[in-house]
Design brief:
Length: 361
Amino acid sequence: MDRCSKFRVFNVLLVVCVANFLLYRYFSQAGMPTLSGLIFKDASLRVTPDSSANSSGSILTLSRLTNGTTPASFSHSAHNSSLGLPLCPLVPPSLNGPLATFKEASSWEQIAKENPGLQPGGRYKPPDCEARHRVAIVIPYRNREEHLKILLKNLHPMLIRQQLDYGIFVIDQALPGKFNRAMLMNIGFVEAMKRYDFQCAVFHDVDLIPENDKNIYSCPEMPRHLSAAIDKFNYRLPYSGIYGGVSAVTKAQFEKMNGFSNMFFGWGGEDDDMAARIAHAGFKITRYPMEIARYKMIKHNNDRGNEQNPQRFALLKTTAKRMATDGLNSLKYSVPVVEELPTHLRIQVLINEQDILKGKM
């Protein structure tokens, strides 16, 4: 090829490059979506980095998940793109570590006033960055208003510092009847997921106050027992397999375990049943270090209607047998009242013990 021909080819290539650059500038300014902003209708697709990419940048490839679910990281990228905010730091910058806990109750309005940015119904998301975790805080509850006020006075500031996109769901079991804490947590999970695309749930007893904000209420890789060190037990584990108090689990993990059992009416046994479900599902219980996973327990008298469950030991012998049919897929309840308060969403539920236990014992 002579010099004249080479020069013509070079000019053509130069024109093509300039045209491509101008088209790129035009469409990027017009808000055309990039790969990170796409929400795929096929939920079985995920974005993964190609191991063959060089150091200058990863190559994004699409691979199909075997279970047809969308991982939290991919779902999150869509949320991040839609808001146009940077991702929050891996380590929230405003954490204090050990906390002074408040023991006095305040009004719902005062608690909301103390936590700017809190939305009605106990919803919050960081204003200046996209949260890495969307978390439903589920509190099983009955007739403990003072304890709930003390908990939320302590909990909201901590969760805000942790830069979570979260909501507080108080599941209030209507009287009369025996208290069923595990079933209330199942109901809270279902009701929360109806309302928002939460990635995970934290199940939280109303009488446990966190003492360290580095105890992040995030979505764990494995089910996490958050309240490992409680002052009532001298900040030690009563036994190695304990899973009660405060715990965190992803949506996918909880659904695989079919949630908690619905059959534990009265006090005791439901957390040990859940620990067995975790093992049967192939998961392991994880914990933060004991100096971080610390809680104070609010002292209280035994609740009427929450006496010890005499069937708990018999039920614990049949966990594996019941797991597939006793849980999220066997819930029966009604919701007479939903109340949007400044600090939380109160969902009152009616449970019929005879209807739940019929033919299951």
